[in-house]
Design brief:
The complex is a heterodimer of chains A (263) and B (271).
Chain A (H helix, E strand, L loop, with lengths): L23 E10 L2 E11 L4 E5 L6 H8 L7 E6 L2 E2 L4 H6 L1 E4 L11 H11 L4 H14 L15 H13 L5 E5 L7 H18 L2 E6 L10 E6 L2 E7 H8 L4 H9 L5
Parallel strand pairs in A: 3-8, 3-9, 6-7, 7-8
Antiparallel strand pairs in A: 1-2, 1-4, 4-5, 9-10
Helix pairs in contact in A: 3-4, 3-5, 5-6, 7-8
Chain B lengths: L2 H21 L1 H23 L16 H31 L1 H6 L5 H26 L9 H28 L3 H17 L7 H7 L1 H9 L1 H13 L5 H21 L6 H5 L7
Classes of the chains: A alpha/beta (263), B mainly alpha (271).
Chain lengths: 263, 271
């Protein structure tokens, strides 16, 4: 397995290489905290309707990348574009097209489901009538319409996650970002949330970036970006990534690409 | 972006802050009990110790209770400003600060919305306290109740902006206790809230200088004069100036390019 230990020499993703038509285009992004380099020359692109798994162990740089894509802080090296809008130059246009589900729960537990959704709608400047309409629609879809007036505190972990996803969709984004959204959920709920987002991706043509360290969350039709030690080791459709690593499945492919270590 | 978007955002933040306030009734009573303890117990005991001469804006001899009310109103606002930034620290840990910051509206505007919502809550508390203080014979001219409103808005914003700025330096809740000790207590005691400046000068000239430049002294004096339908120009300038400085610094601190998040690696760098 000597070949696998070194990073691939071709940084360009095999599948949609054209960043101009991509919903999300990350181009040569690097980021450091002091002397620690969290991201090193990261590039990849996601087209509409594609579910892309950002695969990396803890400390690979996934959260840093999410913070840059959501502009919690600025990209200092490289460019991030959402629908062609440069995150640094046109942050409002870019952010308006992104829906985010953060790793930590961000619903207010003392407020009701509907109050949380209204708050989010307001932050995005949506008119109240539109928020009511869409909130009802999204809650109906996830089967939580009867719980709309219940406090979030009374919901289960899986229900809260689905509410957070519904909330992220209220302003009809083109790109949905989810940072380790299945943390703390049991196997059945994990499957449920994963299915739900795959459906959304297919039905609405959403571009999805799903960060995880769990290999089994990637499906054959998904795109995969392998992030390790702040670098992109491979990007493309799952079968292509496996083929290039010379492995039968994602798990051995990941081990081959990363040299088995934690980097 | 249209003004309607901005208005909806502001409304959403105020509604949320209001709902949280309603859900945390203990917070409201705690905020009310604190100054009442000072008024009902401390002020009564202290009255015998401290002699007050006639100083503006008062035109006759007054009881100590009457003197101390504006200081205690300032105290409500001081605690509120720090508390709303405490909730920022808390929010940040809970991740809901992120929800606010990924809104497409400019970040300075989002912070201002948050600040305004906090000020509205503190003004409600201040008015309830002033009303209750009538039982201790605190009765300013009727128009004073209205005249104090702009003073409360300005001083509430200033103290809230200070809290916001401090929250950008604090990463954890535990550190906040230190800020309470190092910011709230010195600001409160080294001011004209409990004793007039000339009294402080008798005891310690340098402390009087400190109190003279302490923005909280000017918050208290602005409120005191406004309650008696007067404007204290120096205090007005100091409070407005401090607001500009603290708000500017807080917006810089939360700026995605320069801010502390970019330098320190975010609120929770989990990889």
């Amino acid at each position: 397995m000597t070949a696998g230990a070194q990073p691939l020499r071709t940084p360009e993703p095999a599948a949609p290489a054209d960043p101009a038509s991509a919903v999300l285009a990350v181009e040569r992004v690097s980021h450091s905290f002091g002397s620690r380099k969290a991201l090193d020359d990261v590039s990849f692109a996601i087209p509409a309707g594609r579910f892309t798994v950002l695969l990396g162990l803890n400390g690979a740089g996934k959260t840093t990348l999410f913070s840059l894509i959501t502009r919690l802080y600025n990209t200092r090296q490289g460019t991030i574009r959402v629908f062609g809008f440069d995150m640094r130059l046109q942050p409002s246009q870019a952010l308006a097209r992104i829906g985010v589900v953060f790793q930590q729960p961000t619903l207010d537990p003392d407020l009701t489901v509907l109050q949380n959704l209204r708050y989010h709608g307001g932050l995005h400047g949506l008119p109240a009538s539109m928020v009511e309409e869409r909130a009802a629609e999204e809650l109906e879809r996830i089967g939580l319409a009867p719980r709309a007036k219940d406090r979030v505190r009374t919901l289960s972990g899986g229900q809260r996650r689905r509410v957070e996803i519904a909330r992220a969709l209220l302003h009809r984004p083109s790109l949905l970002l989810l940072d380790e959204p299945t943390v703390g959920l049991d196997v059945a709920l994990r499957r449920q949330v994963l299915d739900h987002v795959h459906d959304l991706c297919r039905e609405r043509g959403l571009a999805v970036l799903w960060a995880t360290h769990l290999m089994d969350e990637a499906r054959p039709e998904d795109g995969v970006v392998v992030l390790h030690g702040g670098r992109v080791l491979a990007a493309g459709r799952l079968p292509e990534v496996c083929a290039r690593a010379g492995a039968p499945a994602l798990e051995p492919a990941f081990a081959a690409l990363t040299g088995g270590g934690r980097g | 972006m249209s003004p309607a978007l901005y208005a909806r955002c502001l409304r959403a933040v105020i509604v949320r802050e209001g709902l949280r306030f309603v859900h945390q009734r203990e917070r409201f009573f705690a905020a009310l009990v604190r100054p009442l303890v000072w008024l009902a117990i401390f002020a009564v005991g202290f009255r015998a110790v401290l002699g007050l001469s006639i100083i503006p804006p008062y035109e006759t001899y007054i009881l100590y209770e009457e003197y101390v009310v504006p200081g205690l109103v300032g105290m409500i606002q001081l605690f509120n400003g720090m508390q709303s930034s405490l909730s920022m620290v808390y929010d940040r840990e809970m991740g809901s600060m992120k929800t606010l910051l990924v809104s497409p509206l400019p970040r300075w505007y989002l912070l201002l919305c948050k600040l305004l919502a906090g000020v509205l809550v503190s003004i409600a508390q201040a008015y309830v306290f002033i009303a209750v203080a009538a039982f201790w014979d605190f009765r300013p001219p009727p128009m004073g109740y209205l005249a104090v409103l702009p003073a409360l808005v300005l001083s509430g914003l200033m103290l809230g902006a200070l809290g916001l700025l401090l929250s950008s330096f604090i990463k954890q809740l535990e550190n906040f206790a230190g800020v309470m000790n190092f910011v709230i207590f010195p600001m409160f005691f080294a001011s004209s809230a409990l004793y007039p400046l000339w009294r402080i000068r008798e005891g310690s000239p340098w402390l009087a200088v400190v109190a003279g430049v302490n923005p909280f002294t000017h918050v208290v004096e602005l409120i005191r004069f406004a309650l008696y339908l007067q404007i204290q120009p120096v205090s007005l300038l100091v409070v407005a100036g401090a607001l500009a400085v603290f708000l500017g610094a807080a917006i810089l601190a939360y700026d995605p390019g320069r801010g502390f998040w970019a330098r320190r690696g975010g609120p929770a760098e989990q990889g």
